[in-house]
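hey so u asked for the seq, here:
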Amino acid sequence: MRSTSVTRVIHFCYGHRLLGHGGKCRHLHGHNGVIEVTLRRRRLDRLGMVEDFERIKSGIAKWVKKNLDHKMLLDSRDPLAKILRSEGEPVVLMKGNPTAENIAQLVYGRAKRLKLPVTRVRLWETRDSCAQHPAA
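ran it, structure tokens below
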């Protein structure tokens, strides 16, 4: 039996830097990120849906807007975190570098905790570069 999938696109802005990176990503900088959350089911519900887009919006998109949008995402070991917070800047600490890969994993985990049938999260860091969790 074939399955059906739906994808919700979420736009958000964030800043970050990568500790230990040798290139320009070691500096504070920002992105206009795009997240694609894909859900899949073998059978559609009684209304003919994989999942109501409103549930994805109220669950994942709302969480992204509240917790990641217009925030500085930093490694929990980043010495700038304390300084930025003391200046009133919104900082989100992550375990490890806030790479596109780690952000995609974070959003995927959130969708799983909401018991959504998530099969894939893609984070487009730029229009040319994305990370996907889990890998294809």
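The chain is about 25% helix and 35% strand. Residues 80 and 132 are 28 Å apart (CA to CA).
lmk if thats what u needed
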